């Protein structure tokens, strides 16, 4: 009886061992990638030294600046040497500085942070002042930048004039005719504040275009409620302060029909007539 031939299966040892070999290879790679403890400590020490250096630099820088500021404050350089006034064209600068309470021995920084206090103190003496801002020039020169209320007109005060300010107050300075803005209207004949207050309220209610045409407002009238306006075009308007604001819109229409140098009466209804020679002289119309 013949023996059966056994089948021999060939095994590739590399194939059988490859999972094991790959596993070992991966472990070795991971081990090689894992940072060494000494390297991590060195990096940590470097970061700490860097952070310490930065913090130390900041502390030294702030301390240096603080020492400089303190040295400046206690030195004579911090004392006010000059006070300069800008923006107050009609206000006496020397008197303004005296009334401000600023002294040569005062520190500059004292006033840079007290502009509201300065404004309040000086506006009480000078109604023209709206606001004061303070700046420093050349370490110890104080500059007062004065912002004034706008002048909407001028009130006659004897032979001189004072500003009528946009806040309704009268300016402190008495000005000559050559010193005023002659494009602004002149208010004459006002001896009582109440009268000026009412007429000023009426004037401010007029449209801008009409206000720019007014040359003069007069309270020298027969009745307290009456007002006279002399216009730049040579016409004269008479009206009642309670009703003129509503009627003024018809001025341009009436003046076209009336012509130049006419008296336009808005008190009761509306009518016009030419000015006589006496009226022209009285109102300064040539």
List strands and helices in order, with pairings.
Blueprint lengths: L12 H21 L3 H38 L7 E5 L6 H8 L7 H5 L2 H9 L5 E9 L3 E8 L2 E7 L2 E6 L20 E3 L4 H13 L2 H4 L2 E5 L7 E6 L4 E5 L3 H4 L3 H8 L3 E4 L5 E4 L2 H6 L4
Parallel strand pairs: 1-3, 4-6, 6-7, 9-10
Antiparallel strand pairs: 2-3, 4-5, 7-8, 8-9, 10-11
Features:
11 strands, three-stranded mixed beta sheet, 286 residues, alpha/beta, transmembrane, Ubiquitin-like (UB roll), Rossmann fold, 10 helices, eight-stranded mixed beta sheet, elongated, single chain
Plain-language structure description:
This protein is α/β, with parallel strands linked by helices and 286 residues long. Among the domains are: 72 residues, membrane protein fhac (Ubiquitin-like (UB roll)), CATH 3.10.20.310; 98 residues, 3-Layer(aba) Sandwich (Rossmann fold), CATH 3.40.50. It is 41% helix and 22% strand. A hairpin with a 3-residue loop joins strand 2 and strand 3. The chain is elongated. The mean pLDDT is 82. Cell division protein that may be involved in stabilizing or promoting the assembly of the division complex. It is a single-pass type II membrane protein. Belongs to the FtsQ/DivIB family. DivIB subfamily. This is Cell division protein DivIB. Keywords: Cell cycle, Cell division, Cell membrane, Membrane, Transmembrane, Transmembrane helix.
């Amino acid at each position: 009886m013949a023996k059966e031939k056994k089948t021999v299966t060939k095994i590739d040892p590399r194939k059988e061992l490859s999972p094991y070999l790959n596993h070992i290879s991966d472990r070795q790679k991971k081990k090689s990638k894992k940072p060494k403890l000494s390297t991590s400590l060195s990096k940590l020490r470097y970061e700490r030294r860097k952070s310490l250096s930065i913090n130390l630099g900041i502390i030294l820088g702030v301390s240096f600046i603080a020492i400089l500021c303190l040295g400046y404050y206690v030195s004579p350089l911090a004392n006010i040497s000059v006070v300069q006034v800008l923006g107050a064209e009609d206000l006496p600068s020397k008197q303004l500085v005296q009334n401000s309470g600023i002294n040569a021995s005062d520190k500059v920084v004292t006033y840079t942070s007290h502009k509201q206090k300065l404004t309040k103190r000086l506006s009480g003496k000078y109604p023209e002042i709206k606001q004061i801002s303070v700046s420093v020039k050349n370490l110890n020169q104080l500059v007062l930048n004065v912002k004034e209320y706008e002048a909407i007109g001028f009130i006659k005060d004897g032979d001189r004039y004072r500003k009528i300010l946009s806040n309704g107050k009268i300016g402190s300075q008495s000005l000559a005719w050559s010193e005023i803005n002659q494009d602004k209207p002149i208010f004459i004949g006002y001896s009582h504040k109440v009268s000026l207050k009412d007429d000023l309220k009426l004037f401010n209610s007029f449209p801008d275009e009409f206000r720019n045409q007014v040359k003069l407002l007069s309270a020298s009238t027969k009745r307290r409620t009456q007002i006279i306006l002399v216009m730049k075009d040579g016409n004269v308007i008479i009206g009642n302060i309670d009703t003129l604001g509503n009627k003024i819109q018809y001025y341009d229409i009436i003046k076209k029909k009336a012509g130049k140098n006419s008296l336009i009466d808005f008190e009761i209804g509306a009518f016009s007539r030419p000015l006589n020679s006496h009226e022209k002289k009285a109102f300064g119309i040539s």
